[in-house]
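so my prof wants the structure for this chain in the tokens format not the other one, which i didnt know existed until like an hour ago. anyway here's the sequence
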Amino acid sequence: MTERLPIFPLNAVLYPGLVLPLHVFEERYRRLIADLVAQPEDKPRRFGVLAIKDGREVAPVGESEAPAGPLSGLGTGTGNPLEALHHIGCVADIASVESQPNGGYELLITGTTRFRLRSMETGGAYLVGVAEPIEEELGHGAGTLAGGVARAFRAYQKRLAGARKASLSGEQELPDDPQVLSYLVAAASVLDVPTRQRLLACPDTASRLTAELELLRRETALLAWLPSLPAADLTRQAFSPN
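here's what i got, hopefully its the right format
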């Protein structure tokens, strides 16, 4: 079963269950949010978030004063937007929306379910995709793997705090549910967008936890060799410029 969803490309990865603030100022995305806000209250206000593979969130500034088209800023030299965006994304529910005096919006969105992009419509003010939901599966040994990932994540956090010359205020409470843990660890670790995307696209929770265990052990070992790291390298992306 598929559904049509407005698509919001980001230089970030949204995970199910995780929250992300968005500052919306470009006209095409203002239109997207305005259309959702104008819907009846009983209709869900949601859109699809896809990570950008080739291009930028914000349209390039040029001499033209015309509004940016739905593909502006995306590296679609062939004219096929599917080549500029990753195919697996996450549905975002609008948890809160605040209109700004300049016509923009401040949003707080929550990731709900993963989806696979099947096709894209590019004729409107913003992209609209045909999305197929991805069923979540635990996979073999997810429960056992979750314990190892939780321990590895705590060790990673301690090393990371040391590299940032910061201190941890007590041991963080981690969820018992393997699926929830897998997405929390993916979101809370300092990773680049391609790595975050690979974790989102894992076929099941067990394979995601397996990949995270390897990543955490590798990153913790690397941090042990580094007395300190620049703060800019360790900052999580919790805000999008658009």
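also thought this was worth mentioning. Residues 142-163 form the longest helix (22 residues).
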